[in-house]
Amino acid sequence: MNTVKLRRPDDWHVHLRDGAALAAVVKFTAQRFGRAIVMPNLKPAITTVAAARAYRARILAAVPEHMRFEPLLTLYLTHDTMPDEIDRARATGFIHGVKLYPAGATTHSDAGVTDIAKVYRVLARMEETGMPLLVHGESPHPEVDVFDRETHFIDAVLQPLLERFPSLRVVLEHITTVHAVEFVTHARAGVAATITPQHLLLNRNAIFSGGIRPHYYCLPILKRERDRLALLGAATGGNPRFFLGTDSAPHSQASKENACGCAGMFTAHAAIELYAEAFESAGRLDRLEAFAGHFGADFYGLPRHDDTITLLKESWVPPEVYDFGDGALVPYRGGESIAWRLAESGAT
Ligand code: DOR
Ligand code: ZN
What we know:
33% of the residues lie in helices and 15% in strands. It is α/β, with parallel strands linked by helices. The chain has a single domain, classed as TIM Barrel. The model has no long low-confidence stretch (mean pLDDT 97). The structure holds (4S)-2,6-dioxohexahydropyrimidine-4-carboxylic acid and zinc ion. Residues 15, 41, 106-107, 136, 218-219, 249, 263-264 line the site of (4S)-2,6-dioxohexahydropyrimidine-4-carboxylic acid.
């Protein structure tokens, strides 16, 4: 297959940032995806409907005029979130999830949740109203090994949570392990997961190949080859619980190449192309369309798109850096080749 035509996909997990960074990156997402679930971990975090409304306007203002793109906003769950904020969020029609960051788990998660019991009243309202809970599923405690944080969270926090709120809709974001794949596969109805391109294409050796490679550092951290293979099996397996979420997370080159480098990989410039590589490696390009354009929309109760994009089997080399406002942004595969290219009609 040298050409793949897909119903226009959506990205169910992306970081677009704000200000000059937003202006630098949003076009990459809007070129490929019709909609995206936009993460709320700004500084200050998007904790209210008012903040989400203003952020949505800034995103739309940064989208190039000729592109059609619908940002789907999220709220950042804190101990101060009130149940009636969920009702207001529901009423907007543009807020589609509430994000749970365990405090200390990742970038800008310090305003997050230290004790899940403190947000039970909000979760109850979300369960009643059908508002999805989007979960960064890692236990941040120092005594938990960094490679075991997802597994620990699933067993210690998520499983009991799903029992306490049996109708709560939950997306376990950016899953990385065999354990998460098995957990989501067998979980009750209303539980789904997103999978990133880097977790389908790389294992943890990438972080240490010939030296320490900060551009492969993201959270949850890359795992073993057997985990990667389980994720590839889940993504390409046709199970509607697993769908596309890039977790594209841009940071400036200076904050990545640093004694204490930030977590996050930027993949938005080639997101669907990278998924095509992964699906092709599994001999399942035929399953890419549903993973990218059907299952997420169905989970969120949104219509599938009517238009299409086309991918060509033509290798190209992304630049080593993109402009990122007042710094540079190192994209995944910058200066290296990518096997699939977005056709012009789906581009600018
Ligand atoms: O690697 C990551 N980067 N993981 C996250 O959970 C957050 C993200 C970011 O915002 O940079
Ligand atoms: Zn993320």
